[in-house]
Design goal:
alpha/beta, eleven-stranded mixed β-sheet, six-stranded antiparallel barrel, 16 helices
Length: about 600
């Protein structure tokens, strides 16, 4: 830390001295070997009084004084060449350093030091090395005026804040990886809180497979689960609807072809009841993927009519099988969110407004809880939500900013293309590749990056790597980091709780940090764990309730007034959307207008001509 005056070529800024009487050589080392990326420093393990101290430790930043510049390096290994310890004399050690960049002082007197990645002047043999000063360490992680948020402190020096450039982190997508139990969910909750505070215009949709984030964001979050989700079947594309009908098994091409022909006819019947099965051809023709309402009864009627045709004799087994699949899915209680509505009406504005929080009413986060839902339901719904998120950002011309956060992302985007659901993979890949151009961002959270689609992972420009024990997962992260910081990942298997290595576009340089500590009530999963006390003898377990949930059979409900008058001028997201027209109307928020491209005449269908 203290530079010998006669040995130094003169550093513009004096070293931080605690006592001018102390020996200048007590913690100095000298460069004895250097190549294009690394250097070796010769030093002593003891101080001038012969006491062994932690002056040189793995993971610390050090500084090599070259006069006008100071080369910054990261200690990644320490050892003795002879592998022997001398208790009576001084022990010479070798410190292996990875070169990160260089710091130079500002031109103006008193200006802050400036850090540059890369090395212009390499250390010479005999160059003096010392522990880095606080000012230089702050310069290394300075974001050069970019919009930033503080998410923790540096592991090396807890007096220095760990900042990330929030706009670059979002726009270029980010990933949080780490084995189970290291605090990924807590880190996600912290990042969301910081993001919402700095970007109040952002809407967030969380795909939550463990039902834990809603309780950790109570003031920002709206919870949506299988009971409260309202996603009509007619908003599904053909391949998504087929995934529901075939329950995740391989589809029958003949049956899918029948659906492709008959669904447009059913949609045309809904729009023009007097037109029969005639399908218009032209620019406003409907397809099986057009998000326009239709009735399941009309679809089954079309199948019955085709079965009665003489020329459909050979197709009757296929038609009969398809009809059985549709009726079975419509009667399945797990698909209530798709088929529960007794009156088919065009509620696409209400559905999209509620899911994507337009207007947000002070709660910009939607938490979609998927625990207990069948895999084929999850696959289809995630595909619809990811596709709608991109389309909303696209057609609002970038005015609607959306973040889609995928917890346990390897479920939806597995590395093996034979696994998972292809439409979900395509929808998320589209966001990863093109979303930043339109304001649709992707956040990936996983404990197995080795099982995640490498295409998705390669599009994430900012990584927060927490403790990883699996060698394959470490190799995936190692391939994503810059070569000049590769040795930093040697700490991946030994990092503590709440610690992470951040690298990519969102930080100035590779940074080992410790996340802020959240209050206990904001840690995901804590509230649910405190409410459920473990059973000792089993007498307090409500077996009847467990069986009822297992059967998933809804209780009889009172009849609802489906035929009430609705004011056609109201739009989805209005608090009184479903109320009669003569009721006093609540004025909507200012952010729900034509700026988002959500007018009924423009989204999902063409405006009908009188």
């Amino acid at each position: 830390m203290f530079v010998e005056r006669e040995a130094s070529v003169g550093e513009p800024t004096s070293q931080e001295r605690r006592n001018i009487q102390q020996n200048d050589k007590r913690i100095l080392g000298n460069v004895v070997q250097c190549d294009g990326a690394r250097a070796t420093i010769s030093a002593h393990a003891e101080d001038a009084e012969g006491t062994v101290t932690g002056l040189w430790t793995v993971g610390r930043m050090i500084s090599i004084n070259l006069g006008s510049t100071r080369t910054v390096g990261l200690v990644y290994a320490i050892g003795k060449s002879d592998r022997a310890w001398n208790p009576d004399g001084q022990n010479l050690i070798e410190v292996s350093v990875e070169l990160v960049g260089e710091v130079r002082d500002g031109v103006e007197p008193g200006a802050k030091p400036v850090f540059d990645r890369g090395i212009t002047t390499y250390p010479h043999i005999g160059a003096i090395a010392h522990r880095i000063r606080t000012r230089d360490l702050q310069a290394v992680y300075d974001l050069a005026g970019r919009h930033s948020v503080t998410i923790g402190t540096l592991s090396q020096d807890e007096s220095i804040d760990a900042n990330i450039a929030i706009d670059d982190t979002l726009a270029r997508h980010f990933a949080i990886v780490g084995t189970t139990g290291v605090g990924k969910s807590t880190a996600v909750s912290l990042l969301l809180r910081k993001t919402i505070a700095s970007r109040p215009d952002l809407r967030v949709l969380i795909l939550d497979p463990h039902n834990e984030f809603a309780a950790s964001l109570p003031e920002y979050c709206v919870k949506v689960d299988s009971k409260t989700l309202d996603l009509p079947f007619w908003m599904f594309r053909l391949e998504e609807f087929a995934e529901v009908l075939f329950r995740g098994r391989e589809t029958v091409p003949e049956e899918v072809d029948v659906l492709r022909d008959l669904i447009p006819a059913a949609k045309n019947l809904y729009r023009n009841p007097s037109s029969g099965t005639y399908i218009r051809r032209g620019s406003d023709a409907l397809t099986a993927d057009t998000p326009v309402p239709y009735r399941i009864a009309d679809l089954i009627k079309q199948i019955d009519e085709r079965m009665g045709m003489l020329e459909a004799k050979n197709d009757r087994p296929t038609l009969k099988s398809l009809k059985t699949r549709i009726e079975s899915a419509a009667a399945d209680p797990r698909y209530r969110f798709m088929f529960n509505s007794r009156l088919i009406e065009d509620t696409i504005h209400e559905t999209i407004g509620n899911i994507f929080r337009v207007p947000n009413h002070g709660r910009p986060v939607t938490c979609f809880e998927m625990a207990g839902m069948p895999s084929e339901v999850v696959n289809s719904v995630c595909s619809v939500l990811a596709r709608l998120a991109f389309d909303l950002a696209l057609w609002s011309e970038g005015r609607l900013k959306l973040l889609l956060l995928c917890e346990e992302a390897h479920r939806y985007m597995p590395a093996d293309p034979r696994l998972g659901f292809a439409p979900t993979r395509h929808a998320l890949s589209r966001i990863a590749k093109e979303g930043r151009k339109y304001g649709c961002y992707l956040g990936v959270v996983t404990q197995r990056p080795g099982e995640l689609d490498p295409t998705i992972l390669s599009q994430c420009s900012t990584f927060f790597a927490m403790r990883l024990a699996n060698e394959q997962d470490q190799a995936i992260i190692r391939s994503a980091i810059a070569d000049s910081s590769a040795s930093t990942l040697a700490f991946l298997s030994s990092m503590g709780q709440r610690e992470a290595i951040a690298f990519g576009e969102g930080v100035a340089t590779t940074m080992r940090l410790k996340f802020e500590k959240l209050p206990q009530e904001f840690i995901p999963g804590t509230a649910k764990g405190e409410q459920i006390e473990p059973s000792v003898d089993g007498n307090d377990v409500d077996l009847a309730m467990i069986v009822e949930r297992l059967r998933n059979v809804p209780k009889p409900q009172q009849s609802m007034a489906f035929a009430e008058t609705v004011d056609s001028s109201r739009q989805a997201g209005d608090p009184d959307y479903k109320k009669p027209a003569n009721s006093p109307r609540v004025q909507p928020d200012d952010d729900f207008d034509t700026r988002y491209g959500l007018k009924p005449s423009t989204f999902g269908m063409r405006q009908l001509n009188d």
